[in-house]
Amino acid sequence: MARKSKSNLSELCLEENKDQIYENALAEIQSFELPLGTTLRSVYDDQPNAHQKFMEKLDACIRNHDREIEKMCNFHHQGFVDAITELLKVRADAEKLKVQVTDTNRRLQDAGKEVISQTEEIIRCRVQQRNITTVVEKLQLCLPVLEMYSKLKEQMNVKRYYSALKTMEQLENLYLPRVSQYRFCQIMIENLPKLREEIKEISMSDLKDFLESIRKHSDRIGETAMKQAQQQKTFSTTLQKQNNVNYGRNMHLGRSRISESKNEMTLKRTFEDDDEHEDEVLTAQDLVDFSPVYRCLHIYSVLGDGEIFENYYRKQRRKQARLVLQPQSSMHETVEGYRRYFSQIVGFFVVEDHILHVTQGLVTRTYTDELWNMALSKIVAVLRTHSSYCTDPDLVLELKNLIVVFADTLQGYGFPVNRLFDLLFEIRDQYNETLLKKWSGLFRDIFEADNYSPIPVANEEEYKIVISKFPFQDPELDKVRMKHPHILQQSFPKKLPMSQSVPQIYMQVKEFIYASLKFSESLHRSSTEIDDMLRKSTNLLLTRTLSSCLQNLIKKPHIGLTELVQIIINTTHLEQACKYLEDFISNITNISQLTVHTARLYGLSTFKDARHAAEGEIYTKLNQKIDEFIQIADYDWTMSESDGRASGYLMDLINFLRSTFQVFTHLPNNNNDHAAMSGKVAQTACMSACQHLSMSLMQMLLDSELKQISMGAIQQFNLDVIQCELFASSEPVPGFQGDTLQLAFIDLRQLLDLFMVWDWSTYLADYGQATSKYLRVNPSTALTLLEKVHRGMKDSSKKNNIFAQFRKNDRDKQKLIETVVKQLRSLVNGMSQHT
After folding, report:
1. Do 681 and 563 belong together in one domain?
2. Is residue 450 very low, low, confident or very high in pLDDT (cuts 50, 70, 90)?
3. In this predicted model, what pLDDT tens digit does every residue of 378-410 receive, in sequence order?
4. 765 and 712 in one domain?
5. In terms of residue numbers, what domain contains 802?
6. Number of domains composing the chain
7. Both 597 and 696 in a single domain?
8. Between the CA atoms of 813, 814, 820 and 822, what dihedral angle is there, to the nearest 10 degrees?
9. Whole-number Cα distances in Å, 516 to 70, 442, 494, 590, 791
C-alpha cells in the first residue's frame, strides 16, 4: 500500500512537472523574446502525446486571455461613448471657424497681391545680380587660364618650346585646378599631353638634324682644332728657340738643317683655310649651333624624361663614333686620307668635350673616357694595319706628324694619348724599315755608278769640295800646308785613295740620320732617348743595309780584282769615318759620347766584314782564274822526253799573276795604313794563289783518271814546277821574308826530286826522321805516283823491243819498283793502323 502510494505520489509529481514545463513554454511564447525553436523542441521531445496536452494547455490559456479582454472592454466602454458625444458637439463650431478662416484668407490674399508682385520683382533682380556677380567671378578665374593658353599657343608658333613647357606647367599646377569644372578646361587638359608629345617630337627632330649636322661638320671642327693646336705648338717651339738662341754653336749648327726641314713639313701639314678666316680663332661653338641639344635636354628634363634623352643621345653618338672610326680602304694611299680620318675623330671628341662642359649629366667624364678608350683601341688597330701598307718613308713621316698633332690636340682636351705615342714607336720601326729599303736602293745606285778608281783632284778647290763631303785627311798635304803653304798648289793634281762612292755613301748616311731624326721630333722624348734611337737606326743602316749592299756588290760577277781592291780601300776609309758620324750624332742631340748609356756605332765590324769578304773574293777569283788556266793544260803523259821548256799554259798563268800583283803594288799608298793594307792583301793573295796552284798541280798528278805517267812527262812537269818556283823567288809581291813564298811548292818539289833522282833508298831509310830530305813526301802520294810511273814503264817496254840489254835494265828497274811499292804499301798500311 505504501509502495502504491509512493508510485501515485511520484506520478503526481511528474504531472506537476509537466504542467510546469507547459506553463514555462507558454510564458516563453508570450514573451516574444526567445526563439520558439528551442521552446517547441522542449515540449515535443518529452512524450508522444505531449502535443495534445500542450494544445489543451494552449487553448485554456487563450480562453483566459479572451476573458481578460472582454473585462477590459467592458470597463472602458462608457468613456468611449462620452467622448463621441462631445466630438459631435464640437462639429458645428468647427464649421463656423472654417468659414471665418476662409473669409479672412481671401481678404488677406487680395490685400497682398501687390506686395507679392513687388517682392517677386525684387527677388528676380537680386537673382540676376547674384548671377552677374558669379559670372564676373568665374570670368576672372577663367581669363588668366585663357590668357596662358593663348600664350602657350603663341610660344608654340614661335618655337619657344621650353617656355611653352613652363607655361603648361603653370596651367596644370596653378590655373586649371581653379576652373577644372568647366568643359573648356577639360578640353585644355586633354590637349596638354598632346602638345607635350608634339614638343618632344619637334625637339627630337631638331636633335636628329643636329646630330646629322655635326656628323657632316666633324671633319671641319677637327681640322680647326688641330690647326689651333699646331699653331700653339709652333708658337711655343719658336718661343723656346728664342730663349735658347745662345744654347750652343754646335747644337745650333746641328739643328739648322732639321729646323729647315721641320719648317717645310710644317708648311705641308698646315691646314688650308679661307683668307677671310685666316686670323680668326674658331671654336666648335662657332662652327656648330648647339642650341638644339640644350633645348632638347631642357625639354626632356622638364618632361621628366631626361634619362631617356641621355640614353638616346649617347646611343646615337656611339653609332656615329663607330662610323667615324671606320676608315676608308684606300686611306693608306695618301696623307689626305689620314688627315680626314683624324679630323673627323678630333671633331667628334671636341663636340663631346663641349657638351661635357656646357651641360650637366648629358655627357659625363666617365662616359667620354669609356668612349675614348673604345675609340683609342680602334684607332691604334686601324693605324697599325694601314701604316703597315705604307712603303714610302715620306708618307710614313707625314703620318707620324699627323698622329703627333692629333695626339697633342686631344691631349689638350684632357684625353690620355700615351698609347698613341707608344704606337709611334712601332711606326718608327716601320719608318726605319722603309728608310732602310730606300737607302738600300740609293747605295746600290751609288755602287753601280762608281768607277772604282781613285778620285782625281786637279787643284785645292776640288780637294776642298771632296773633304767638305767626307772627313779625309792627307798627311802630306797637311804637312805642306803647315810648313810651305805657298807651294801647296804644286802638290796637285793628285789622286785620293778612295773612289767616288765613299763621300757619296758618307753623305747618304748623314742624310739617313737626318731623316731618322725627323721622326724622333715631337715624340716627347728626352735627348738621351733620341740619341739612342738615332744610333740604333744608324747601326741598322750600317750593319744590315750597307753591309748587305757591300756583300752583294762583292759577289757580283763583273767586279774584278781591281774593283775588289778598291772596295777594300773604300771600306777602310768608311770605317775610319765612323767616329765622325758619332760626333755628328752627338752634335745633333747634344749628348756626349762619354755618357754611360750612349750606344756606339757598329760600323767598324761592318766594314771589317766587308773587307774580309772582299779579300776572300779576291782569293776566290784568283783561284778560279788559276783553275781556268789549269783546265786548258794539255800534257802528254806518255811522252818519252820533255820539250825542254815550260808549258805554254803555265807561262800564261805566271804572266797573268805577275800583272795582277802589279795592280796591288801600284795602289796609291798615300799613308802607311794604305800601304800596309794593300801589302797585306797582296801578300795573302799571292800566297793563296801559289798554294792553290801547287795544290792544283799535285791533284793533276794524282788524278784517279790518269792511269799511267812516263818519266818524260815527269820531266816536263818538273820544268813547269821550276817556273813556278822561279816566279815565287822573283818576289812578285814585296814583303815576303826569305823563301817563304817558295815553300808553297815544297811538297811538289820534294816529290818530283824523289822521282827525278830516283832516290828511293834515301827516302825509305830516312822516312819518319825530322832531317829527312823528303820529309814532305807522303808515302801514299809517292805510292800513287809510283804506280802510275810503273804502269807507264810497262807499257813503254812492251812497245820497245830494240835491244835486249835495255829490256834487262827495264826488268831490273821494274823489280826495283815492285820492291819499293811493297815497302811503300807497308808504310801506308802502318800509317792507317797507327791512325
Report:
1. no
2. very high
3. 999 999 988 888 888 999 999 999 999 999 999
4. yes
5. 633-832
6. 4
7. no
8. -160
9. 146, 16, 37, 16, 74
